[in-house]
Amino acid sequence: MANGGRPRDPRIRIHAHSRPAERGQSLVEFAITLPVVLLMVLFGIDFGRVYLGWVTLNNAAREAANFASINPTAWTGAGSLVAQAEYARLINDESAAINCTLPSPLPDPAFPSGTDVGSPAVVAITCQFTLLTPLIGGILGSPLNVTAATAFPIRSGAIAGTGGGGGPLPSIGPVLPTSDPSQSIPPATPSPDPNCLVPNLVQGNLKTDEAIPVWIAAGFQSNNLLFSPLVPPHYDIKDQSLGDGRSVPCTSSMTVYDKKQ
Fold it and tell me: How far apart are CA 257 and CA 227, in angstroms?
């Protein structure tokens, strides 16, 4: 007995002795969960880096495929070293900010259906991405292969089944005056752009690879026909941004879609 003969409350003694045990339990739980939390954080960081790198690599592949679709003959016959160098520069510049090692040399674009207008120009790039987390790298492998591929329809060259070209018509520059002022010819006044009738690319279930020859036959430039979504794979055209039968400048652009807009 203490405190004037009153018994000591046993609950106070039990609570006082339980504090060190609770602290020890908290330390053990913290030691167990800390590695798991850190692993999840590092995994999130690595996943974010790989995803952003993949997005950037896709942008590089898109730029390269678009360039190849306009210059398909740069990799056929004698080719063009200047165009090939520009193709490599586009990929390297777009991919410079990611921690992903590009192959050397860079893969050339592929033309699986030839280089006729409307055929696909395909660019596929695989780079090696270095992971920060050793454990994740041991599971998934480090460096990790990241691949991006895209394709654009060829918009310059010959139309399949014809002997004509699909590129824009050459322009004529101004006529320079001769040394004799009396014989000088004034510069020609540029004429307004001619108009063309918009073809109906929806009727008849035309596919995207069949649309470009029809578009060019109507007098428009091949690279002014746009696709949403991009091709391949080729799909039936369900809608177009310009109404058929309209008279518009031949330099106009039109987008075709795989569904009604």
Answer: 6
Number of domains present in the structure of the chain = 2
**180 and 88 Cβ atoms separated by less than 8 Å:** no
pTM attached to this predicted model: 0.53
Residue 164, pLDDT score: 45
Contact 64, 86 (CB under 8 A): no
Quick: pLDDT tens for 138-188: 666 678 888 999 999 988 765 555 444 444 434 333 434 445 555 555 555
DSSP 132: S
Burial class of residue 186, CB neighbours in 10 A (0-12, 13-18, 19+) = exposed
What's 227's domain CATH number?
Answer: 3.30.10
Taking the C-alpha atoms of residue 120 and residue 113, their distance in angstroms, rounded to an integer, is 7
Measure CA of the first residue to CA of the last residue in the chain; give whole Å: 90
Domain range holding 62? 26-151
Quick check: bond before 229 cis, omega within 30?
Answer: yes
> Does 187 reside within a domain?
no
Phi (first) and psi of residue 186, to 5 degrees: -65, 150
| Distance (Å, whole) CA 111 – CA 79 | 14
Cα 95 from Cα 84, distance rounded (Å)? 17
Partners of 236 in beta bridges: 207
Q: What is the pLDDT of residues 79-103, one digit of tens each?
A: 889 999 999 999 999 888 787 889 9
In a domain, 101, yes or no: yes
Residues 52 and 129 in one domain: yes
CA separation for the pair 217, 215 (Å, rounded): 6
Alpha-carbon distance of 52 to 129, in angstroms, equals 11
CA torsion through residues 245, 246, 250, 253, sign: negative
Task: Select from 117, 134, 151 the last residue of a domain.
Answer: 151
